[in-house]
Design a protein that fits this description.
By secondary structure, the protein is of the alpha/beta class. Helices cover 50% and strands 10% of the residues.
């Protein structure tokens, strides 16, 4: 029997799905991805490509009781739902190596996230030296090669191997089954070499964090990369606390869930004293598998538009039946809004607005709300309302800069350029286009993809001008 690795499928394979405005003008939705901590660092890895410095994430706003529940659910299950019988982790210093066809921006992004691991999570992490067998090896291979081994996966993590060849030779062996692992010694991450700098950076954050920490994702977490809704991809302050707790000396390899639960309150009092007096507001109810399956159908690359719309409607039905008012309801509204733009634009608009209201009330939900603002700004351009588009993008920009999402940042600048053009503000429009270019190259990759995004957004204003 083939043993499935720990992998990212939906998260890193969501395409830029197109919205139809007015029946014929397309705007690709910005990839639901991002997170926090950023000051532009000039160039990182190529001429004309902007990078991020990677500043510390904000402190978690949840209560310690909520965080303890989240950590237990993250530590003792896999994304597939399979339970993990015992705590597994590295013991001692951790080394990381990049191998294969390493993209030019990867080393700089790895250095920045290692600095954050050391400063925020207190982990003894460093790059592996030449000739040293690293604890974590991130190997880059062409996407098609990875897909022939694990279908639909973008990045995935495998225990007890250090190379792609080693994994292929042991795919069916118990050694590559995470449920058999206690002390982690060698872990491999496999990521596409032929992708954008932003996706490389995102895989570094997400997969290295899982290699050193919990293996599960929870849709209920609004302020975390440990969530398959794909909004946060740069590690948050919550994530760094999770990693610090996971590797705390008060815990030991092989502990059961009950043993870890008994020690978490004291650990969190020590590491996160601000969370002791807070009242819990998080809905920790389990997420039905039927809803998760509907997410994959609604936002995946396969299937017809009608099938995706029905899946989004199923998300909404399940969310309402569960009585959710958290990120899972907002994500259902977000998916439903995407699915209804062609057939029922007023319903789509209402769904996006309601999703934005919910997100703005959640810890870390500002990032998701900025995505909603981008969608609403695109609608405003397509309907000939440039002032509204400028106001929405103005609100989203600081959040997106902090979230380190270059593709969304570039899209916001391009929407602003079209709004300025519509208002006859030529100089401001030119400046906005210039502002978009370095971020577009980091977020979209090739010049052809950058031009395509520019053309798509320019088409919105052209359509509005004919209305």
């Amino acid at each position: 029997m083939l043993i499935a690795p720990q992998l990212r499928t939906l998260r890193r394979t969501l395409p830029f799905l197109a919205l139809m405005l007015g029946g014929c003008t397309t705007l690709p939705l910005a990839d639901v991805s991002m997170n926090r901590g950023v000051e532009a660092s000039g160039m990182s890895g190529g001429s004309g490509i902007a990078g991020f410095a990677g500043r510390a994430g904000s402190a978690p706003r949840q209560s310690n009781a909520e965080i303890a529940k989240d950590i237990l659910d993250l530590q003792f299950a896999m994304e597939s739902g399979r339970p993990l019988p015992a705590l597994s982790r590295f013991e001692g210093p951790i080394t990381i190596a990049l191998t294969g066809n390493v993209p030019p921006t990867a080393a700089g992004d790895l250095a920045r996230v290692i600095k954050r691991f050391r400063n925020e999570a207190g982990l003894d992490v460093r790059p592996a030296q030449a000739g040293e067998r690293a604890n974590i090896t991130m190997e880059f291979r062409p996407r098609a090669m990875l897909g022939r081994v694990v279908a639909n996966a973008a990045c995935f993590v495998v225990p007890r191997v250090s190379s792609f060849e080693e994994y292929r030779a042991n795919r069916s062996a118990p050694e590559t089954d995470w449920t058999t692992v206690r002390e982690r010694e060698h872990v491999a991450i496999f990521a596409p070499s032929d992708t954008t700098p932003q996706e490389v950076r995102d895989c570094l954050h997400e997969e290295v964090a899982q290699a050193m920490g919990p293996l599960n994702d929870l849709y209920r977490l609004s302020d975390s990369v440990f969530n398959d809704d794909n909004f946060h991809t740069v590690l948050t302050g919550f994530d760094m606390l999770v990693l610090r707790v996971h590797n705390d000396p008060a815990l030991r390899v092989g502990m059961t869930k009950a043993e870890v639960a008994a020690r978490l309150p004291a650990i969190l009092r020590r590491l996160h004293p601000a969370g002791e007096g807070r009242r819990g507001t998080e809905d920790t109810s389990p997420t039905p598998r039927a809803w998760e399956a509907a997410v994959e159908r609604a936002l995946g690359a396969r299937g017809s538009q009608a099938a995706r719309a029905e899946a989004a409607a199923a998300m909404m039905r399940i969310a309402r039946a569960q009585g959710w008012q958290d990120g899972r309801m907002a994500f259902s509204l977000f998916a439903y809004g995407r699915s209804q733009v062609r057939s029922d634009f007023p319903a789509a608009l209402a769904a996006f607005r309601q999703a934005g209201e919910i997100y703005r009330g959640l810890p870390g939900g500002e990032v998701q709300a900025a995505h909603v603002d981008m969608q609403l700004a695109a609608f405003a351009i397509g309907q000939g309302h440039p002032e509204e588009a400028l106001a929405l993008t103005e609100r989203a920009l600081p959040v997106v800069i902090s979230a380190e999402n270059a593709s969304l940042l570039a899209t916001l600048h391009l929407i602003r350029a079209q709004a300025f053009e519509r208002l006859g503000m030529k100089a401001q429009a030119k400046a906005a286009r210039l502002d978009s270019l370095p971020w577009a190259r980091y977020g979209f990759g090739s010049d052809a993809q950058v031009r395509a995004r520019m053309d798509e957004i320019a088409g919105l204003a052209a359509r509005a001008g004919k209305g």
